[in-house]
C-alpha cells in the first residue's frame, strides 16, 4: 500500500467526502444536517473538508441522521475514523502557522499543483538559506532552533517532487519576475536560489514559468493562489493565503473562477525555455 493511501490526511478526506455524499443523498443542506446532528455548521463543514478530525461519536451521530444502517458501510467509515485519527509527521511541529497543517495535508496527497506567486519562491522550490531568511524576517518571534525546525520541515516537504511511490507531484509553478529579483537573504543566497530553480526545472514533473515585468497587466494581478488536484474521484481545492488568514475554496463557482484565472496565467506566460533563460539571466546579474 502506498504512502498516500496510508496517509491520515488521505483517509480523512475520503471519510469527509463519503459523509458529504450521504448528506447530499438525503437532500440536506449543511445547516439542516448540522441542526439535526447537533453540530455547528462550521464543525460539520470542517469534517466534510477534512479540516477537523472526526471522532467515532461524531460519525455515529451523522450516520444516524443520514439513516445509514448498512453494517458494512458503517464498519468501513468507523475504520476510517480510526485510521484518520493518527498524526501526520508534521503535526508535532509547534511553530507551524495556524491552520497551515491543512495545507500540508493537501500537499501530501495531491497529484498535481498549479501555483502562482507574486513575491516569493514557492516553498517546494526554496533552498534552506532562502527559507531561513524568509522565516527570520516574517516570524521574528521565533527562536533560532524553532526556525531551524521549520526549515527542516520545508526541506522534507520537497521530497514529494522526487518520491517514487506514490508518483511524484506534478508541479506547475508560475512566478512574477519580481520574485527572481528580490534578494532574499542577500545576493549570494538569492543566486543560489535561482540556481536551485534551474536545477528543479530539469525534473520531468516540474514546469517553471516566469511572468516578465514587460508583460504588463495580466490575469494574475489579483494575487497569489494555488490549485490542488487529486485523484479523479476527488474535487480540487484552491488555496489563497493572505494577512487576513488562509482560505480553502471548494465551491463550484470558486473552483471554476480560479481555474479560469490560472488558465489565462498559463496562456500568457512565456514558455519554459524563455522562462529558464530569464532565470539564468538574473542569476548571472546576481553573481558577485
Side-by-side strand order of the widest sheet? 3-2-1-4-5-6
- What's the β-strand tally? 6
- The average pLDDT is 88
Enumerate the spans where pLDDT stays under 50 for 5 or more consecutive residues: 1-5
Measured distance between first and last alpha carbons: 49 Å
Elements, N to C (H/E): HHHHHHHEHHEHHEEEEHH
* Count of separate DSSP helical elements: 13
Oligomer: single chain
Helical content (DSSP H or I, runs of 4+): 40-55%
Q: Mind sketching the topology for me?
A:
Blueprint: H1 3-6, H2 8-25, H3 30-37, H4 41-48, H5 56-65, H6 71-84, H7 100-109, E1 112-117, H8 128-138, H9 144-157, E2 170-176, H10 177-181, H11 187-200, E3 206-211, E4 225-229, E5 237-242, E6 245-249, H12 252-268, H13 272-285
Parallel strand pairs: 1-2, 2-3
Antiparallel strand pairs: 1-4, 4-5, 5-6
Word description of this protein:
- The chain has 288 residues and is of the alpha/beta class.
- It is 51% helix and 12% strand.
- It contains 13 helices and 6 strands.
- The protein has helices at residues 3-6, 8-25, 30-37, 41-48, 56-65, 71-84, 100-109, 128-138, 144-157, 177-181, 187-200, 252-268, 272-285; strands at 112-117, 170-176, 206-211, 225-229, 237-242, 245-249.
- A 6-stranded mixed β-sheet has the order 3-2-1-4-5-6, with helices on both faces.
- A hairpin with a 2-residue loop joins strand 5 and strand 6.
- Helix 2 runs antiparallel to helix 6 (71-84).
- The chain is elongated.
- Mean pLDDT is 88; it is low at 1-5.
Amino acid at each position: 500500500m502506498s504512502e498516500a493511501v496510508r496517509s491520515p490526511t488521505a483517509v480523512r478526506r475520503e471519510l469527509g467526502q463519503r459523509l458529504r455524499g450521504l448528506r447530499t443523498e438525503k437532500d440536506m443542506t449543511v445547516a439542516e444536517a448540522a441542526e439535526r446532528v447537533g453540530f455547528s455548521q462550521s464543525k460539520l463543514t470542517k469534517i466534510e473538508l477534512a479540516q477537523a478530525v472526526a471522532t467515532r461519536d461524531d460519525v455515529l451521530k451523522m450516520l444516524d441522521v443520514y439513516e445509514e444502517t448498512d453494517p458494512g458501510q458503517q464498519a468501513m467509515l468507523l475504520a476510517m475514523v480510526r485510521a484518520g485519527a493518527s498524526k501526520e509527521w508534521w503535526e508535532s511541529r509547534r511553530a507551524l502557522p495556524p491552520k497551515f497543517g491543512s495545507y500540508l495535508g493537501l500537499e501530501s496527497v495531491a497529484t498535481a499543483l498549479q501555483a502562482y506567486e507574486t513575491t516569493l519562491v514557492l516553498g517546494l522550490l526554496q533552498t534552506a538559506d532562502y527559507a531561513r531568511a524568509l522565516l527570520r524576517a516574517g516570524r521574528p518571534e521565533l527562536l533560532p532552533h524553532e526556525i531551524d525546525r521549520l526549515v527542516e520541515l520545508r526541506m522534507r516537504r520537497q521530497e514529494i517532487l522526487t518520491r517514487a511511490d506514490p508518483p511524484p507531484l506534478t508541479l506547475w509553478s508560475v512566478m512574477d519576475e519580481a520574485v527572481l529579483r528580490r534578494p532574499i537573504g542577500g545576493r549570494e543566497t538569492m543566486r543560489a536560489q535561482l540556481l536551485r530553480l534551474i536545477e528543479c526545472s530539469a525534473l520531468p514533473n516540474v514546469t517553471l514559468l516566469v511572468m516578465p515585468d514587460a508583460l504588463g497587466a495580466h490575469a494574475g494581478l489579483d494575487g497569489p493562489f494555488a490549485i490542488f488536484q487529486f485523484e479523479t474521484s476527488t474535487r480540487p481545492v484552491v488555496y489563497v493565503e493572505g494577512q487576513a488568514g488562509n482560505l480553502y475554496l471548494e465551491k463550484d463557482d470558486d473552483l471554476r473562477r480560479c481555474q479560469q484565472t490560472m488558465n489565462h496565467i498559463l496562456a500568457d506566460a512565456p514558455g519554459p525555455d524563455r522562462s529558464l533563460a530569464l532565470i539564468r539571466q538574473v542569476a548571472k546579474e546576481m553573481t558577485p
